[in-house]
Amino acid sequence: MANLGVNIDHVATLRQARRGTEPDPVGAAHEAELGGADAITVHLREDRRHAQDRDVEVLRATVQTKLNLEMAATDEMLAMARGIVPAMATLVPEGRMEITTEGGLDVRSGLDRLRDVVASLHEKGVMVSAFVEADADQIEASAEAGFDACEIHTGPYARLYHAAGGDRRNAGLHAEIERIEHAGRIVREAGMRFNAGHALNYVNVGPIAAMEGVWELHIGHAIVSRAVFVGVREAVREMKSLIVQSAGGRS
Ligand code: PXP
What we know:
Number of strands: 8
Number of helices: 11
Oligomer: single chain
Bound molecules: pyridoxine-5'-phosphate
Number of domains: 1
Helix content: 40-55%
Strand content: 15-25%
CATH topology: TIM Barrel
Structural class: alpha/beta
Low-confidence stretches: none
Order of helices and strands: EHHEHEHEHEHEHHEHEHH
């Protein structure tokens, strides 16, 4: 069954709307863990638009499960990660104008640099994951760079799911599910862990959570949105229960 990594950036986004102290993403992480989160993810962006350095530092000291630091492969973030030493770092591309991470990392083009970044994080004992599209060449490049895991981008899947009204017999949606499943197989055959994430929600998570060998799902927006109505702990509990159900229904 897949682990659930909860991304708490949106709690920080709300706090930053007032540049104040609440809601505190550290409190959200604690609640998420009580609801069954297996990992807490925080993305420290170059522009510090949501999470702040203090958040990452306090989370490192207080998270009881696993802290996953999402970061761009820049010198600044590498130094930060080497100082913080999270359990895992997920390398993502970062565009200044994007609302959220848009596409996967181009590991093939940045292979030399990424190999150095991964080695530098390994030196500190940090597991490193690459956020990539469901593309064989990018996955193979990730293995060449020494990554421990690949997080397959589920954004295109989520868009197709919505467009097809969740009809799994829809040709486009069916093909995308197969594409991700196939990518997951390549990831595992290359000796890496198969993670998935982006735009997963309470409606579309099932087919991804049911995939063979999927190790961890990373979900943020849907859980924080649901938490507005039921609280973080319950929102995480509900997502966790869907993941358990989906894993049970695997054929
Ligand atoms: N995985 C990665 C690599 C991401 O960048 C994000 C967004 O921060 C997520 C997962 C979570 O996406 P969402 O907020 O759409 O669930």
